[in-house]
Design goal:
homodimer, alpha+beta, 5 helices, 3 strands, elongated, DNA-binding
Chain lengths: 92, 92
Amino acid sequence: MGFQESFKALSDPTRREILNLLRAGPMSAGDLLKHFSMTGASLSHHLSILKNAGLIDDERQGKYIFYTLNTTVLDDIMNWMLSLKGENRDEE
Amino acid sequence: MGFQESFKALSDPTRREILNLLRAGPMSAGDLLKHFSMTGASLSHHLSILKNAGLIDDERQGKYIFYTLNTTVLDDIMNWMLSLKGENRDEE
DNA sequence: TAGATATTTAGATAATTGTCTAAATAATAA
DNA sequence: TTATTATTTAGACAATTATCTAAATATCTA
């Protein structure tokens, strides 16, 4: 999973809002859906893109699938940005 | 200029490489072009997207237009990412 | 088992995007 | 001015994407 996927995932406002909502803790697809005016299929599409980008994890619990934030990729991106600013500890 | 434009700008590998190249200092479009195998028109398109996203600045000097990194937007993005991680000083 | 609920997958469509060629603009040099 | 160099803009085209409807899968409950 490279930056390509991550930035594409982050470039959609619905997906950024999903990440914001998940700050509060794990939520099911149905919980998340209440915050949007789109079909479940569309939301599911966004969730799969976020998952492929490594930005969220999912875990089924019975009928529900709970999604959680995964901030590892965000750390990688921030390190890359710091390196652009000439502030990355890992190089130079 | 919102995150929408910024993340879209960052989601293309050519544009991320342009930013990397500009770490070394200002470069003209022609300087940058040497590092890619695309037409000047295509590169110009990428530069305009980066500029619209606030990620680079440009300044004409005679025949040349020099591009420089602008890291302000990167700071904004990093703050947003820190807030996702629950580490933003500006809130909570 | 059958039925209900939660979620995803498949397939279609309109909008966006990255690239190209050709033409236009800007600045310099002869 | 004319020609040359540097860069952008315009227009076209193929690939990608966000959304939808309809159907499929997974789980629970009666």
